[in-house]
Request: fold
Amino acid sequence: MLKKITTPLTDKITRSLKTGDEALISGIIYTARDAAHKRLVFDMKKPPLNLKDQIIYYCGPTPAMPGRAVGSAGPTTSSRMDGFIAVLLKAGLKGMIGKGPRSKEARALMKKHKAVYFVATGGAGALLARHIRSSKIVAYPELGPEAIHEFNVLDFPVIVANDTKGRDIFEEGIKKYRRKSK
Amino acid sequence: MREIEAKKIIETVKDLCIQANYELSDDVLYLLNEALKKERSANAREIIRELISNADIAKKVRYPICQDTGLALIFIELGQDVRITGGDLTEAVNEGVSRGYKEGYLRKSVVNDPFFRKNTNDNAPALIHTEIIPGDKIKITFMAKGGGCENVGAFKMFKPGASREEIEEFVVETVKTAGANPCPPIMVGVGIGGNQENSALLAKKALLREAGKLSSNKDTHKMEKELLVKINDLGIGPEGLGGTMTALSVHIETAPCHIASLPVTVSIDCHAHRVKHEVI
Reply:
């Protein structure tokens, strides 16, 4: 089912999303990947941004060409961020966008905090960039491509991978198509 | 002796970096279109359509195919009758990478040290492999290798008596463990033989082969075909969401090895398989 959602991502929205739903996200989302997560967790007593009801996009974009909002901007592998999310969810983070499955521990934390995990198509950074209307760096500029960017997105296409009930699209999908080799 | 100016090498490397990151090669596009016909999951077909459309946007509207524009792998086949003038080869290659990544608006994804991790801000140094060959030409091959797929490669030293089935099982298991992370449908490169570092290089060289072109060796060819079926039976599918197209192609390279050893390396590349070469 295709759902249009607008950030901030409230509990009401996350509860309405089910694993397998296609969604189009509009509004503000924040990028952060490995280095920014390390810094964020360290700075959690005085965080550089308010994470309540926000979405973090695991992405380090290419530099924007002159006159453009952003360069290529697809998702990176989410599992590398699994060890960092406990404190971020505690601070109110409600959604994450990335690619690939999450650990059991990360999924349990999402369920507990009523947060969801979306996947965007990995390696489709050109196509996804077209849904980003503006971009600015809001924290850790010294990290270069790993700085935290604030993206204003319009109909950014994602699929719900883990919903608040703890379902997992990867387990369900792969089971359906696995065949016994001869 | 044929003289080639270092300047020419800088320009060639720069152009290869940009071209590879903006224009997905015809061989890869062909395999993606074939995957679209073969894939049985409707959702997975939708993803493959997105990937084909992404390649089209990248080329025509000028966005890099993927935001991970890779570590720059440079393979040089240097003719022994070539003399490079006006600079040295390694510096010229790194200068080409630096210019290509800056002028091409590509992401700088290299850090100076595994622990201090300070971005070098120009994507240099490249990883350069040079081979001296007969002739008076230089062939430069560029590969943009993303982190997600590089992280899931594997090496195993088998006993010399290991069967083909055991090795196939290791390759399939590596792909299974990798799951969604390397951005399937993937390209699988396998290096069998040589020694530890040589098998890793063979696996990378296998990935440099024209995508979908199977080995000319009959036994290797058969193994490549069998492995592709086994890998696609895993059900991982595009982006790991389930489907019948997990890999686009499996390429194997083999080499002589020690009587005591049978090294095997698996190197995986994502569907944004960016390889370009140029002969000077």
Q: What stands out?
A: The two ends of chain A are 36 Å apart (CA to CA). Residues 29-60+71-121 of chain A form a domain with the fumarase fold (CATH 3.20.130.10). Chain A touches chain B at residues 35, 59-65, 71-74, 76-77, 79, 99-101, 119, 121-127, 129-130, 143-146, 159, 169-170, 172-181 (CB under 8 Å).
